[in-house]
């Protein structure tokens, strides 16, 4: 950072904001999470009624309480009214105008508490009941099915003509973009507040220099900006002090097409930011994640509030126990190079990798250097939060007309991920790193490369396993074997992790009890051997239901057509996990041009009071025999379920999995059998070649309210991460 750029950044950090934005942002995220569990408030009659209650009940109550408090404690706003109020305040100029027209002043949130904070609301409810005896304090979702026409009621009430239905529609997808765990980290939010001040100062300078620009934030900045606007009096006062006027928040444009307003605005903001501050604008964990995943349900899943979740993890520890692994997101860019000796010609680039084995990122990739290529190229990847990133400066030159190119390693440098994740680093670094020459190079000053890197705070990494079968004539083969190979039916299936370590071995067999029965229907059981050599019976087939782990869990195939479209249901205690065909919710595929067949996958979705619309917990890759599990309690039940599905698939084909609930035995056509054999052959060839890594370069929108440019995402196929 040059001296002039450092002075600009220092000037930005002098901005005074009269709100504790870090604490307020955490409360903001908590509220958005609650709204996400109550999506029925986002549209239809429920939203119409909420808007009616907001104008006719909440705002008048707030105005009267502000003039003369009804009681000493804080006023607790009902959830539906708070959501409408939230969206109204996110158009700060319109909210200010509407309040002044309706009540003669801005109605602030001072001494107002969100209903999600758990503070007693008895006094507020009593006041509400006294003022509005015919209107309940809490809006029940069942009321939305009544015959009342709130649209007609609104016409006769004191209200603004601002389109709050559209405002809610624009804001409802925002939570998905800021819902990952690092967004609640103190150190990450502190960095976001500093960048928000930089964003305001940038707009101030643009205004002073009369530059035509549409400033577009990244999502960390946008979260803090929204949080500031939720304190309307402070926001108006602070912004007038900073730039002489209230800064409006334009969220009406959502077209991310290349060349449109958001795209060009984000590119322009990136350019102006990096020129003014000498710092990178893009930040790990703050970029556009893609569209909100397609919902599985329109209405929330009914839950039993009286049931308590039973902890089955400790019992599973006796069979398998795996240490927790952490992961972080890394954004890396090479800005420039200096002090190259004379005589070096050709193109320069930087190769990067981890200096020690990494289960998540074990590749070697390359980046161009911005000062050399003139093109912004950014690597965005995930890795373990330990060790060093090794950076090698490379030179590539052409020799003859055949354009054969030789690559020379000039030198290397490294940066510590532990240093990057410590609080003092603020999760970001941009500086010149000295390159240690790989051979004797005569230079007056050491060669250096300017490196910009940002990271998120570490979070729990998913558990990833591979299922493989030992074969008599092959060292390792895919779990989904050829049909008809009954001579290998007694072989064990090995479950291994990414390091190649065996976790457990599984085998399906006919139970001893069924062999003594005269009934022709054989009962099956699944047995295992763990690393300690202990044998356990993991599951038994009882009728058409699988009982898992001493009946702690039950697995049933769907026997009739349902709107949800799930195929299997796993139930343990109060936990309900449904398996859907394809990649769903967080696993939904968005960016790669070569999209795989959705028949290759199943997604495990948990439904609960905390996640009434479903939470993606595991992905089963049926084609490659890979299991990705997010939660420890689902490890063993998930592995067992995957094995049962795989056992059916390799014997009966995929069509039997789709209809297994109606009948447990099917006769495939020869065409289906050949398709299954071809699938198994393809998978076996992949495992034999060891082609476990792929690199994808995608065009992705990157800004908060806007979009960005091209950058690279490298990801390991086995971890299903990368293109957000």
UniProtKB/TrEMBL annotation:
GO BP annotations, alphabetical order: cellular response to osmotic stress
GRDP C2 domain ranges (all copies): 324-457
InterPro entries: GRDP-like, GRDP_C, GRDP_C2
Domain GRPD C-terminal: from-to ranges: 495-629
Domain of life per record: Eukaryota
Protein name: Glycine-rich domain-containing protein 1
